[in-house]
Fold:
Amino acid sequence: MHASILKYFAEVARSGSIRKASEELHVATSAVSRQIKKLEDELGTPLFERFSDGLRLTSAGEIVLRHAKDTLHEYEIMKSNLGDLHGKSTGRVHIAALDSLAIQFLPEFVSGFHKKHPAVDFRIRTDNYNNIFRFLAEGDVDIGVTFDLARPHDMKLIHGVRMPLMAIVAKTHPLARQKSVTLQECAQFNMLLQLDNEVMSSMIAVELGALNRVGRTLVATNNQMMLKPMILSGEGVAFFTPLGLLRELEAGDAVALPIAGSKLQNLEVGIVVSRRRQLTHATEVVAQSMGEELAKFGEKINAVVSR
Structure:
C-alpha cells in the first residue's frame, strides 16, 4: 500500500498534474487526488502548491519525493530479487533515449526482449542528450541511451558503438552522388536542423562559423519524424546519425554522407547507467542485451552507409 501511494505521488510530481498522472497510471483522477490528500494529511503538511497551470512541489514535497524515489527503487529491486528465486527476470525498466532510437531500434529490441523475458515491462521516454543524463542523475530512469559526449563522472558506460553524425540527403539531391561532403558544401543548400539538440546544432554552427559560412535553416524542429519527409523530398540537408533512417538508407531513398574534416565523425552512442544507483536484475539483463543488439544494429548501419 505504501508503495502505491508513493507511486501516485511521484507521478504527480513528475507530470505536475493530477489529470496527467491519472492517465499515465490508468486510474481515476479522483483516486489519485484522494491519495495525495491522504498523504498530505498523514504528514501534516502540503506537498504541492496549486496553480492554474498545474502543481509544483513545496519544500516538504521535495523531501518526500527523494524518499519516494528511493523507496520505489528499493521496491523494484525487491521484486526483481523475488523473480530471481523463480529463475526469471521480472520488473519494470525505465529508459530515456534519443528520439532516433525510437523509430526502429527500440521497438525491435523491446519486441525481441519481451519474447524471452515476458515478465519485464518498459517505460520509455525520448529526449535530448542533456536531459537524458539529468534523468539518470535524478533517478527518473534506469538506463540512458545517448551520445557518449562529455559524460559526467558519475555515469558509467555499459556499451558504446561508433555512430558519426552524417549529412542526410534525398537520393535526388545534388550532393547525393558524392562520396563525402564538407560543411561548406552543405551550407550552399537549405538546412533541416534539430531544434532541441544543443550539442549537435552548436557544433555544426561552430564549424560553419570557422569557415565563415552560415547556412540557411529552412526548418528547425524537435521532431525527427517531421524532418524525414522533407529530407526524402529533397528540401535540404539534415544532420543525423543513421540510427533513425536505416530503412530509408536500405531502400536507397536517402543517402548518408560522411562529413569530411568534421569532429562530428568521432561520435559514439552509448548505453549509460548511474554509478550511484543499484540496478535491478531486470535492468542489468536489459542493459546487457541492449548493448549486444545495439552493436548488431551498428554493424548493419555501417554495412549500408559504406556500400
About this structure: The first helix runs from residue 2 to 15. The first strand starts at residue 48 and ends at 51.
